[in-house]
């Protein structure tokens, strides 16, 4: 499978969109919920917002690496997205109110191309680009289930 294919997962959350938004914009929850992300360090004051920059600290088995991320969309209760400058990937959470709660989706796309650093790193240290993309796709579901549990608690 391609390393640049769009990855997507969604889940129904039995909680109002305001609560789910609160959870997906809490960086400590994102760290706890992700199988790969181990920390998010903000580079600017002002919290999670459009223009904010983060260093994402990631881990896969024995490999640990940083990524530089910039929040490019921040539409409260609807969508938050950030570009991972280190790889060329874009990550997003999308929220949609339903009759019983919230439909929550997470996406990883590659709007252009994976940059050379990202391709090299995935190929040499993460088990190959397509394998890592497969792992990320599985991780989306794991992340959403964790966010669901936290939002519903």
Automatic annotation (TrEMBL):
Pfam families: Polyketide_cyc2 (PF10604). CDD domains: SRPBCC (cd07812). InterPro entries: Polyketide_cyclase/dehydratase, START-like_dom_sf. This is SRPBCC family protein. It comes from Dietzia cercidiphylli. The lineage of its organism: Bacteria, Bacillati, Actinomycetota, Actinomycetes, Mycobacteriales.
């Amino acid at each position: 499978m391609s390393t640049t294919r769009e990855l997507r997962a969604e889940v129904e959350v039995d909680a109002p969109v305001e609560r789910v938004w609160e959870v997906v914009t809490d960086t400590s929850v994102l760290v706890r919920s992700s199988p790969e992300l181990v920390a998010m360090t903000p580079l600017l004051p002002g919290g999670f917002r459009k223009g904010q920059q983060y260093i994402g600290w990631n881990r896969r088995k024995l490999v640990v690496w940083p990524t530089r991320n910039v929040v490019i969309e921040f539409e409260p209760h609807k969508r938050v997205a950030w570009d991972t400058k280190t790889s060329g990937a874009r990550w997003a959470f999308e929220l949609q109110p339903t009759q019983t709660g919230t439909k929550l989706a997470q996406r990883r796309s590659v709007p252009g191309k994976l940059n050379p650093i990202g391709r090299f790193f995935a190929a040499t240290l993460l088990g190959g680009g397509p394998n890592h993309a497969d792992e990320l796709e599985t991780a989306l579901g794991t992340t959403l289930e964790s966010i669901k549990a936290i939002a519903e608690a």
